[in-house]
Write a structure and sequence with these properties.
7-stranded mixed beta sheet, D-Maltodextrin-Binding Protein, domain 2, Lysozyme, 3 domains, single chain, 472 residues, 21 helices, alpha/beta
Length: 472
């Protein structure tokens, strides 16, 4: 079970929330000091952690709580058989003091390990690497070096690793000037650059990755740092029991490959950004999708599949063009072959309702065929690959994956093997032979991007990842 408390949030505040946080603090300080922190957590079944609302940490997604930090914390709490009491802070500068003052067991908030922070807290085993990047809008002048930042409208977050870095750079660049904001967050600053309210800001590379499809005009001027580590922040206490348990947990996630799986889940489909494609998708969503949306919704409800995923498939296949045709003979919004259409009972592939219902039924059949050892979300990604390349070729890729020591039921491993089906050395050993495996990987990657954008566009909060902002 997870308990959420919002503390002094930039966007949410209420007296009872503060009292809840205070109660959590009292609960921590009242623990029996003769037992270790780990034992106290296990006996009380309460793990109290502070985090932030952001696309990279924790947010309320369409299917419930989400975010890389949340995924890690939930697994850690489960490993201890405790309830996760997640305190959500809206202000970066209050998080480290909460750890130092013993108000929480630790902070999991996308925190970069820095020298200044290490003076007051101790950091766990790192779980992710990022770079600090200088961000500008494409219509503005691109800074080439630190000296070019002078006289720019430049703001970063107060108490952030970005502000700490700038303070270090100012020693050698005395003309360097910037503002530090206490009432914004990293994604809000990106939004201000996009709206021409700021010239520059600094963002962590993972934050930019998750937001570029929302702000396609944003650009990276240059990297300000080499790769830096993100980690959990613990009090500097002689009691290392919980700290060591967290380190062991993160190491186990790394060794098992589960950490890589989680990072792939949130970032694996976002590495290749295409400005033009993003702009066209947004335009087509507004102009073309409304005509077909009822068909996607009805078909999705019939087969228990998210209609936005089906719409994403339709966009990848035809850009939502009912009369789409390809030289290979596939037609319609879902680009069905003639044999597949006949098998599904589709009389006219160019009829949008029939095409969408047929494509949905086919995708559902693929998922049922693959269901078993494959769990979600890998089942969905592999079913998408099968939709594109055929289930026989996907099975071949699974076998090759296993032969090479990978997990045939994990998309992270199978997507590395699929391109081998284009090489004679490998496809000559398979049952179904040559296939354009790299194209299948791109196919799945694109659909995941479109699916994300549709979920954001149709979220009750209108683009949820903009609402849940973060800085480090």
């Amino acid at each position: 079970m997870v308990v959420f408390t919002t503390l002094n949030s930039v966007k949410h505040s209420a007296p009872w929330l503060l009292s809840l946080a205070t109660a959590a603090t009292i609960g921590l300080s009242a623990c029996n000091q003769s037992t270790s922190t780990l034992q106290q957590v296990i006996e009380s079944k309460q793990l109290v952690v502070v985090t932030r609302n952001s696309a990279t940490t924790y947010y309320e997604g369409s299917d419930g709580p989400a975010g890389l930090e949340y995924e890690l914390l939930k697994r850690f709490a489960d490993s201890l058989n405790t309830e996760l009491n997640l305190i959500v802070s809206g202000n970066l500068h209050e998080i480290i003091p909460m750890v130092v003052n013993g108000e929480v067991h630790f902070a999991a908030a996308g925190l970069t390990i820095t020298n200044d922070r290490k003076k007051v807290v101790k950091f766990s085993e790192p779980y992710q690497e990022i770079k600090q990047q200088l961000i500008y809008r494409s219509s503005g002048k691109k800074p080439k070096n630190i000296s070019d930042i002078a006289n720019q409208n430049f703001t970063v977050l107060a108490g952030s690793s970005h502000a700490e870095l700038l303070a270090q750079l100012k020693v050698e660049h005395d003309t360097l000037l910037w503002h530090e904001s206490t009432d914004s967050d990293e994604e809000e600053l990106l939004d201000k650059v996009w709206r021409h309210e700021l010239d520059l800001t600094i963002a962590d590379s993972n934050t930019l990755t998750l937001n570029r499809r929302l702000y396609p005009e944003l650009r990276v001027a240059f990297d300000l740092t080499e790769p830096e580590s993100l980690a959990w922040a613990f009090p500097q206490s002689q009691d290392n029991s919980l700290y060591q348990a967290a380190n062991n947990f993160i190491k186990e996630l790394k060794d098992s490959g589960e950490l890589d799986q989680l990072i792939e889940l949130y970032y694996g489909h976002l590495n290749d950004f295409n400005y033009v494609a993003t702009k066209w998708f947004s335009q087509h969503r507004q102009q073309r999708l409304p005509e077909f949306e009822p068909f996607f919704i009805q078909a999705g409800a019939r087969h228990g599949i998210d209609w936005q995923l089906l719409a994403a498939i339709g966009y990848q296949e035809s850009h939502w063009r009912a009369k789409a045709k390809s030289p290979t003979g596939v037609r319609g919004i879902m680009m069905l072959t003639r044999p597949t259409a006949q098998q599904l009972g589709v009389k006219s592939r160019l009829d949008p309702m029939q095409s969408i219902w047929g494509g949905t039924k086919y995708f559902s059949q693929l998922k049922k065929s693959l269901k078993g050892a494959i769990s979600e979300p890998d089942l969905t990604w592999m079913s998408l690959a099968a939709y594109n390349i055929g289930i026989g070729h996907l099975r071949d890729a699974q076998i090759l994956t296993q032969e090479q020591g990978g997990d045939p039921n994990k998309w992270l491993d199978v997507k590395e093997t699929l391109p081998l089906l284009q090489q004679q050395r490998w496809h000559s050993t398979t049952r179904h032979g040559y296939a354009r495996g790299k194209e299948a990987v791109t196919y799945v990657t694109n659909i995941r991007k479109y699916y994300d954008q549709l979920k954001e566009a149709y979220s009750p909060l209108q683009a949820s990842s903009v609402q849940f902002r973060e800085a480090s």
